[in-house]
Design goal:
heterodimer; A: 232 residues; mainly alpha; MetI-like fold; 0% strand; B: 425 residues; alpha+beta; Rossmann fold; OB fold (Dihydrolipoamide Acetyltransferase, E2P); 3 domains; 6-stranded mixed β-sheet; 5-stranded antiparallel β-sheet; 12 helices
Chain lengths: 232, 425
């Protein structure tokens, strides 16, 4: 038990003293996962909406693929991103393996199917006739899609939370494509793994607590926004 | 299809419209013309194609074949589908409101059109008041009752001042009292704004109450179209007859109403007098000026009675000699001056030989001439012609005993309680 109390004490002191290294790691984690989530929102909501609103041959297969993608193992993503970005891989010339950019790419790939799947479900839950009603109100196709997205905003907020929650807590892909380079690609999860393997449980716990606090704080904000939108 | 083609140039017309789903033709309407300002109801059983017709006319679904003309302009050629859609509004069975306030919902059509917020405000407030939902202005649409939600949906549709309003079973999901008041409000706003409307419904009473014309649909086709009395009293085939029921429906106006008994002046020869002039009178604020009466009764006693009514209500200026009127008594609470339909089921009509007075408690007795006698199983269906058309069921035995045949003059009678009154509007 001492280990845990020591760890929490250490975490508090690191937080209160605004330890530069811990702050740097935390900031990078937020930046990388935030950017990856933003990218996944554009792609996920875009494609999710398109699939939800259209019918085409093979649509069933596409929907199944998206749903499978929601459970994509991060290490598999890490493996393929590494291969693609490897020096003599297809995108080796970009020389971005072991950079924050590589982590953003891997995390965006993990988050996109999650956002897409939730968007798809949310859009399909809207009454079918709502589309006709919006068109009958004089909307262009673009206005119709925008109004539908606005109608599904509560569910889409859940997509943001699920996407961000998925990538900020993910470690496999980040360590594989980022390399856990101190002060450059070290994020909260990769740092926690490293400190634990070194036996520095106090620091590991401190990082873990910070991770939890951030995950909680961000979800709290989004939940508050979501609840405020709800009818009283 | 009955010839009732309007002479005024139509606001909307559909030519040879066809819609397919899953390789099956679900809509096939050869020609449909909508007159500016009219309210047309489309009735028919489930799956008859009512909704499909509305969606085809409003260009919300793809046509396999056919053209839609709006104010003489071909949609898709002379006017873009978007510009056309911006001239119309649609209300569905479900309110389909946006997850926002009542105000923002009513404003949504205008916002989509890019109207300035300052201009939106006045229009929205007017519509909110018209539909009695001003107090719900800032409420979330998700917290509304079914009736309130549908009022919001109607206010949203009227906010854009549509030239054409499509209503797809707008009251089907509401409970009867709510439906009743909402129907009255809708009718009032339709008439004050002069909006042309097409309403799909499976409820013929609803259709009778607000329509200038009714179209009956079956299996994707319009099988009959015409004024309500014509559809109800002269169905062109067995399907329509069985669908609209077997009641005689007579249009009239309430003269007085005392102790639950209403006296109603029947517009004479409703099917021959031409529906256009009648429609016009409804449009001009339902003035009494072009409703013409003279007295006619079963016997002298009844005549005197009618005369008393005229004097008491000081109506003689509306009475012109030479035109027929019949007065009938009906049980029901209505207000004088109200336009109504009187429905009488044939089994409630009794026939007596001419000259023999009806000594029963029946309040209504009219001389009539037998038009046709149609055998219908154990009884005969006797079509009568008097001040208004009437159908009676008479047993085969009575036909023989009374020696009834086409051309015979008889007295037809029915009780005041046998008359079912439907208020128009």
């Amino acid at each position: 038990m001492d280990i845990i109390f020591e760890g929490i004490k250490q975490a508090l002191s690191l937080l209160i003293s605004l330890d530069p290294e811990v702050m740097g790691i935390t900031w990078l984690s937020l930046k990388v996962s935030g950017t990856a989530t933003l990218i996944s929102l554009f792609i996920g909501i875009g494609i999710g909406t398109a699939v939800a609103l259209t019918s085409f041959p093979g649509r069933q297969i596409v929907v199944s693929l998206i749903n499978t993608g929601m459970a994509l193992p991060p290490v598999v993503v890490g493996l393929f991103v590494t291969i693609f970005l490897w020096r003599n891989g297809p995108f080796g010339a970009l020389e971005i393996l072991y950079t924050p950019m590589a982590i953003i790419i891997a995390q965006a790939i993990i988050a996109t199917p999650i956002v897409m799947g939730i968007t798809l479900a949310a859009m399909q839950q809207l009454p079918r006739k709502l589309r006709l009603q919006i068109l009958a109100l004089g909307a262009t196709r673009f206005q119709m899609v925008w109004l539908l997205i606005k109608e599904a905003k509560l569910s889409l907020m859940a997509a943001v939370m699920a996407g961000f929650g998925g990538v900020i807590s993910e470690v496999g892909a980040s360590i594989m494509v980022g390399g856990n380079i101190k002060g450059y690609t070290r994020v909260l999860t990769t740092a926690t793994v490293m400190e634990t393997s070194k036996g520095n449980f106090d620091v590991a716990i401190a990082l873990g607590v910070i991770l939890l606090i951030f995950a909680f704080a961000i979800n709290l904000v989004l939940t508050r926004v979501q609840q405020r939108e709800r009818p009283r | 299809m009955t010839a009732n083609v309007p002479t005024t140039s139509p606001i909307l017309s559909g030519e040879n419209i066809q819609v397919q789903r899953g390789g099956k033709r679900i809509l096939d309407v050869f020609s449909l013309k909508i007159i500016p300002g009219e309210v047309l109801s489309i009735i028919g059983p489930n799956g008859a194609g009512k909704t499909t017709l509305l969606q085809a006319l409003s260009q919300l679904i793809r046509l396999v074949k056919g053209d839609i003309y709006f104010q003489g302009k071909k949609v898709g050629a002379d006017i873009s589908p978007l510009d056309y859609r911006r001239c119309l509004a649609m209300v569905f069975q479900e309110a389909l409101l946006f997850d926002t306030t009542v105000y923002a919902n009513v404003a949504s059509g205008l916002k989509i059109r890019g109207v300035k917020s300052s201009e939106i405000d006045a229009v929205v407030n007017t519509r909110l008041e018209q539909f009695g939902i001003g107090h719900l202005r800032d409420r979330s649409a998700k917290t509304l009752s079914g009736g309130e939600a549908q009022r919001t949906s109607l206010a949203r549709a009227f906010a854009i001042q549509p030239q054409l309003l499509f209503l797809d079973e707008p009251f089907a999901a509401l409970d009867p009292p709510t439906r009743e008041t909402l129907l009255e409000d809708l009718n009032r706003v339709l008439r004050t704004t002069g909006t042309t409307a097409i309403m799909a419904t499976h409820d013929q009473v609803e259709a009778l109450r607000i329509s200038d014309r009714i179209a009956v649909m079956n299996e994707g086709r319009i099988v009959q179209i015409g004024p309500p009395e014509e559809i109800m009293n002269h169905p062109v085939d067995e399907f329509i007859a069985s669908f609209v029921g077997v009641e005689t429906i007579i249009e009239g106006r309430v003269i007085k109403c005392e102790r639950g008994t209403a006296t109603i002046a029947i517009n004479s020869n409703p099917t021959n007098s031409g529906s256009k002039s009648k429609m016009k009178s409804r449009r001009q604020g339902r003035g009494d000026a072009d409703v013409l009466f003279i007295r006619q009764g079963a016997d002298d006693e009844a005549n005197e009675d009618s005369a008393l009514i005229w004097n008491r209500n000081n109506l003689p200026e509306t009475v012109r000699e030479g035109l027929e009127v019949s007065l009938l008594e009906a049980a029901g609470q209505v207000r004088p001056g109200e336009q109504v339909f009187c429905c009488i089921r044939p089994e409630h009509v009794t026939i007596y030989p001419s000259g023999q007075l009806d000594r029963s408690s029946a309040r209504n007795a009219f001389p009539a001439i037998i038009d046709r006698i149609i055998p219908a199983g154990p009884f005969h269906k006797v079509h009568l012609r008097g001040g208004f058309p009437l159908v009676a069921y008479v047993t085969v035995q009575s036909i023989e005993e009374l020696d009834l045949r086409p051309g015979s003059t008889v007295i037809a009678s029915f009780k005041a309680t046998a008359v079912h009154i439907i208020r128009r509007g």
